[in-house]
Specification:
- About 30% of the residues lie in helices and about 20% in strands.
- It is of the alpha+beta class.
- The strands form five sheets. The chain has a six-stranded antiparallel beta barrel with strand order 1-2-3-6-5-4.
- It is globular.
Length: about 750
């Protein structure tokens, strides 16, 4: 399905096409009614096909999900030919058209598309979706995939079809006519792929009533998805979509920004060695727009997706119309996102001027008006780096002009934002005194006042490995503790059940309507990753972390790792709980200078810095562009700026001898606020969304005192199925206030 200007390698690469087929099938799903699994005898609940268009988003036909119940369906996917099928609940987020009372004789009206968001996060492959407008294609061959019943159970199907023309011309209901193959019942909703470019261009809609073939809907029809009234893309981006109802924002921008970031991040190094869509596109020999390699294209799209979307379609069209020497034809539907504008350039630029236009377009996107935040500044800088690299293939006058305009834009940005340059903040210098404002109700030492909290303390028994003592108390506003219950010798694996009744009683005493009391879990440093937020008080209850704020504190500061990351007499090797070979003693008490540094760090991250460039910043310590790296020793960690909030991306992926002590080293280095996620993913999992989400969460806190509530909100949103929050699955928070020492001076509180 190529035009004469942008053909792939003649005949393509047979191994590349086989690998492309595997990627397509891994991303193609079957859709069932709710309440079913994947057993063959349940094929009667089978509705049709679909495919992953972005992480945790499925695209299918509206008539397929119409057979579901109340907009709820079950999505069944199979990551590989030898993997077991996996079922996950899904919710219909949008359909095109939005409402159909009853289908007419010609079937479901075009465009007949539906977006399904998964109710819970899963690891899966995503297709690569073309950014080109497609209505003018009238010839060529395409590849299709889907599921259909065969001998009583759904089976994967695929094949090739010939494009015979269009139905509906250039209207918003245009469809491609496909022929020369029989389409079985059930493949509707599956992807249609251009095999020469290696990208999805449409969705199978229907099969022919008489003869072979059927029709498909171009992927560009998703541009007609409505935007909820009152929502502006810049506002949504500014708030990270976190404070908005999941069905009340611009789904088109959310899905395709996630799509483009996913494929950009998939090009990062992994341990799996599996080919990506971009790898296969390179093997097929295509060059998008006759000038970019697939790597350059996916990198550019990923950087564009880090920016807020266009303020409006009109604003995007104004940018395209302003490009010198470029005539934008009338496109229906009109380009809507940054990726759509790039696709329009491919189709309509002169053969010898595409790169210049792409660089000019990226420059105008970079300098477009938008709210200024540190994330916008970082994204604009990253886009400039791409432009600068691409411009090395252009003439010197063009390079000089781009550099001049970049310098002018940087000057304009500095005038827009108050305060000093961000580099001063990253160096660790102290902010001016006038920036040290404090939120109402907080003290000048940065401590966040408490009303009530429930404290769970756990003491590991060095002489009885795998067992612990525990106690539960209610802590009052002044830090006074009232013991409620305790226990001895509980197995760690059974601790959640042992304490459930006592925790429930403590919460009953403290909770108010709409104001659940927070839970503070004081744990030994080698158990800081104990998943207390995932415990349930009873069968069928929500996890504790989705019911209330749950934070972790370090109980055994006198036993923290030494400066070199190890212990006296301990070689760093250990099991999950970290106690194999370690008797719990031999560390050193932090000195006065260490305690002073700890308080200063706490002070800095809790100061309410209203200027964006003086706020606390997240620092990923164990992952560099998706490559696992060891956490530094205590001395290096102490050298980071005081405004740093450490973040661990792959806690639990223990590849280095001292990984078990990483959290302890961070605490020893003076940090009282740490974010991490428990790693139980595949080795080639994409990390970019977690890195981005963690940085935005720390920035949004405007003082770390808001982090417990923000993390609580994220956990609730994950449970509620908000796709934009899925990056926060398994998130944990250390929040250990140096101004409020644990009651009992490190001893367990005994109930009366």
């Amino acid at each position: 399905m190529t035009d004469r200007y942008d053909e792939g390698a003649s005949g393509g690469s047979e191994p590349a096409h086989r690998a492309l087929r595997e990627l397509v099938m891994a991303a193609t799903v079957r859709i069932h009614r709710t309440g079913v699994g994947y057993a063959p005898e349940e094929s009667g609940a089978f509705l049709g096909s679909g495919f992953f268009i972005a992480p945790n988003w499925v695209l299918t036909c509206a008539h397929v999900i119409h057979g579901g119940e109340g907009g709820e369906v079950t999505v069944i996917y199979q990551p590989g030919p030898y993997d077991e099928p996996r079922a996950v609940p899904g919710k219909v987020a949008a359909t095109l058209p939005e409402h159909v009372d009853r289908p007419g004789q010609g079937g479901w009206p075009a465009p007949d598309l539906a977006l399904v968001r998964l109710r819970e996060p899963v690891e899966h492959e995503c297709v690569y979706v073309s950014e080109r407008p497609m209505p003018h294609y009238t010839e060529g061959r395409v590849f299709y995939a889907g599921w259909a019943p065969f001998q009583g159970q759904p089976q994967p199907h695929d094949g090739s079809l010939t494009v015979h023309g269009t139905i509906g011309g250039w209207s918003t209901g245009a469809q491609l006519r496909l022929g020369e193959n029989d389409l079985p019942l059930g493949v509707s909703g599956g992807p249609v792929i251009d095999p020469a470019r290696g990208e999805v261009v449409g969705v199978l809609k229907s099969r022919a009533d008489h003869g072979s073939g059927g029709t498909s809907i171009g992927i560009e029809r998703l541009r007609t998805l409505p935007v909820a009234p009152g929502d502006r893309p810049h506002d949504l981006y500014r708030h990270g979509l976190r404070h908005h109802d999941p069905y009340q924002h611009d789904l088109y921008q959310a899905v395709f920004h996630a799509h483009d970031r996913y494929h950009r991040d998939r090009q990062q190094p992994t341990d799996s060695g599996r080919p990506t869509w971009t790898d296969l596109q390179a093997e097929l020999g295509t060059r998008p727009g006759r000038t970019l390699s697939p790597d350059e294209r996916v990198d550019l799209l990923g950087r564009l997706a880090d920016l807020p979307p266009p303020e409006s379609t009109r604003g995007l069209l104004d940018i395209l119309h302003s490009l010198p020497g470029f005539r934008l034809p009338t496109l229906s539907p009109a380009p809507r996102g940054w990726r759509d504008g790039l696709g329009a350039l491919y189709e309509n630029a002169r053969q010898d001027g595409t790169l210049r236009l792409v660089a000019e377009y990226a420059m105008r996107v970079m300098t477009a008006e938008r709210p200024v935040t540190p994330f916008v500044l970082d994204a604009e800088q990253a886009l400039w780096e791409w432009i600068k690299q691409a411009a090395t293939r252009l003439d010197s006058d063009t390079r000089s002009d781009l550099a001049r305009r970049r310098a002018q834009h940087v000057g304009d940005r500095r005038r827009e934002r108050p305060g000093r340059d961000r580099a001063e903040h990253r160096s660790g210098g102290a902010p001016p005194e006038q920036a040290r404002a404090h939120p109402p109700g907080t003290s000048r030492d940065g401590a966040v006042p408490l009303s009530l909290s429930v404290l769970l303390e756990v003491e590991h028994l060095a002489w009885n490995r795998g067992h612990c003592d525990w106690s539960i108390a209610v802590v009052g506003p002044e830090g006074e503790a009232t013991p409620l219950s305790d226990g001895q010798g509980a197995p760690l694996d059974d601790l959640a059940d042992r304490v459930a009744e006592s925790l429930a009683e403590a919460f009953r005493r403290c909770d108010e309507p709409g104001r659940p009391v927070p839970l503070h879990a004081a744990l030994p440093h080698l158990l800081l990753d104990l998943p207390v937020d995932e415990w349930r008080l009873r069968s069928g209850a929500e996890p504790l972390g989705a019911e209330r704020p749950v934070v972790v504190r370090c109980k055994d500061r006198d036993q923290l790792p030494a400066e070199d990351g190890g212990y006296d007499g301990y070689d760093g090797s250990g099991s999950y709980d970290g106690y194999d070979g370690y008797d719990g003693y031999g560390g050193e008490l932090p000195g006065d200078d260490e305690e002073s540094d700890r308080r200063e760090r706490w002070q800095w991250v809790h100061d309410r810095h209203d200027r964006p460039d003086t706020r606390a910043r997240a620092e990923i310590l164990d992952c560099d562009d998706a490559v696992r790296r060891p956490v530094s020793d205590v001395a290096v960690l102490r050298g980071l700026a005081h405004g740093t909030v450490p973040v661990l991306c792959r806690r639990g992926d223990q590849r280095y001898p001292d990984d078990a002590t990483a959290l302890g080293r961070i605490v020893r280095a003076g940090y009282g606020v740490v974010l991490w996620r428990r790693w139980n993913r595949q080795t080639d999992s994409v990390c970019g969304e977690f890195h981005r989400g963690a940085r935005m969460t720390v920035y949004d806190a405007v003082g770390a005192g808001a982090l417990p509530e923000l993390v609580y909100g994220l956990r609730k949103q994950v449970r509620e199925g908000l796709t934009e929050a899925f990056w926060a699955k398994d998130i944990a928070l250390l929040y250990d206030d140096p101004h409020r020492p644990l009651p009992g001076a490190g001893d367990l509180l005994e109930a009366p």
